[in-house]
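Workshop exercise sheet. Pairs work together: one partner reads the sequence aloud, the other fills in the structure field after running the prediction. Swap roles for the next sheet.
Pair: D.N. / O.F.
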Amino acid sequence: MTRFQVGVQLQPQATSTAALLEAAMAADQMGADSIWVWDHFYPLYGDPDATHFEAYTLLAAMAAQTSRARLGAMVTCNSYRNPNLLADMSRTIDHISDGRFTLGIGSGWFERDYTEYGYEFGTAPGRLKALERDLPTITERLGRLNPPPVGTLPILIGGSGRKVTLRLVAQYADAWNAFGPPENYAELNAVLDDWCDKVGRDRTAVERTVCINPDEVGNAEAYLEAGATHLIIMTSDPFALDAVATLVETARS
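Structure field:
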């Protein structure tokens, strides 16, 4: 099997900060390459009023209590923070983690977050246009901050829009994330390759990540054949770290 990386998304709903931090430390110790949370203000499924926690404060705490895995939001909603502020927050967490932060970002989609927190929801094309506007601002601010990031602070863009999102990945991102099944991922991966060619970007410059469910661990080979190089297991409390351990062992064998 082709060598690949393994990550875990610890979904911050229906849980506690203690459980999230414990799971992050355990994943770090078992050899996970990356640890992610999502960037929402309310649960995405199950009890809509279950406990929930904010992404960037969690990531700062995880950065302080882990030592190996990369950290990030899968993915940050561009609408929720001023792009200059987001760059500064990312740089600060990068320092706390000693260079292990990845800025995962997307255009946003969960309407309840917007309405409850007073953000303008607008339209999907409008939010995507805002992401295209803000990406250069983020990269410019990262280049002006004093001190600069400790690490490379890669940008990951999540999404599957063939006409705009994947073009933005080719233009601005160091990594890309989408979802399965494998045949869907393979199709999108080919579209991204085409966009890289069109904008003059080396295809191999963009890391290919995919979010999968714990019960898809046995399907790892199909995702690798579809073009993924980094498999990220999505899990909620009680966090399915046995699946992460299995995938880590497979990746290292």
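Discussion prompt: Residues 13 and 43 are 5 Å apart (CA to CA). What would you look at next?
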